[in-house]
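Figure 2 data, in text form.
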Amino acid sequence: VKKYKIDAILNFGDLIFPVATPQVYFFDWPYAVYPESLVWKRMGFRSYIQRRIKYHLIRASIHIPKAVIAQTVTIAMRLRKLFGLENIQIVRSPVTLHPKGYTEKYDFCLPSNKIKLLCLCDFAPHKNVEVLLPLTRILREKGRQFVIITTFNTKSSGPAANFLDVIHKEGLTPFLINIGPIERALIPYLFDQCDALLFPTLLETYGLPFVEAMYYGKTIFTSDFDFTSDVCSDAAYYFNPLDHENIFQTLEMAFRDDETRRKKIEIGAGIVAS
């Protein structure tokens, strides 16, 4: 900043520059505004220490920027309540959506005789994907029409590999298929071949898969939190992310009522269009 005599800073990084130069800070780290979240108790000791340090650095410098950009009204309200900020601007997160009507085809070879629930995320503490294990057990016992599609990267995450190993050992692979991480360009094809988005997250500032699911006309199932309802409104079905029985009941209820599901999909299309 000093070397090039920068006049102003647009900061999309996680941490705030401790300088007097005018700065606009794009806030997108939900841990800082959800100190009560269960996620803090779930992570390992090293991850906890790293995130606590980051939290205190943000808290100590959050008043430096001339303006802070929040992605939703909910996050803006939490920034005001926790840090006393007033210089907040709300800007919805930009989402790259591929045009519909693409002619090429990429086949993920997913089962055609089941309702496919896409869990589009990495294996991270705040994504709460551990709940998929007991949920998959219920699918084997009661809901054989469902299959969960995950996109975990087993090379970069030991917990992901361990999770999938349990799935394999328990014979649950017909009800949970991991296709691994996919390129952004293939996301339209993946949504096209799935029936719904299953997103049991515990923490988000926005949640891009919500917007993608609404754009591609898919049913949304997600956790009942303020940040999810801010983005999805009445376009989603909400469940208790800590209760796999409740998740299963929500899935079954939704797919017994096609008219309500269709209305929620239409609401989602309206949200994206606006």
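Caption note: The beta strands are 9-11, 23-26, 67-70, 88-90, 115-119, 146-150, 176-178, 196-199, 219-223, 236-239.
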